Amino acid sequence: MEQPQSLRSLFAAAKAEKTALEPRPDSNSDSYRNDVNATIAKFEECQRLVALASLFSSNEALEDVSTGDLPYLTVDYLFADILQRSYTSDREATLRRALELYESYLARLDDYQLLKPNDKKLYDRYISNPTSFSLAPTNDAASRREVKVARFQEEKELKEKLEYLSNNQGRLQSDEDDVRQLYLAEINLFTHEAFQSMDLVSQELSMLSAIRRNPPNPEQLPHSDPRRRNDDPHSGYSERLDAPLSQLLQGGRLRPLLSKEGKPLQPFTLLDRRTQLQQGVFRSGHNLPTMTIDEYLEEERKRGGIIEGGEKSGMKEEVDEDDMDKADEETMKARAWDEFTEANPRGSGNTLNRG
Question: Which segments does the entry list as coiled coil (predicted)?
Answer without folding.
Answer: none
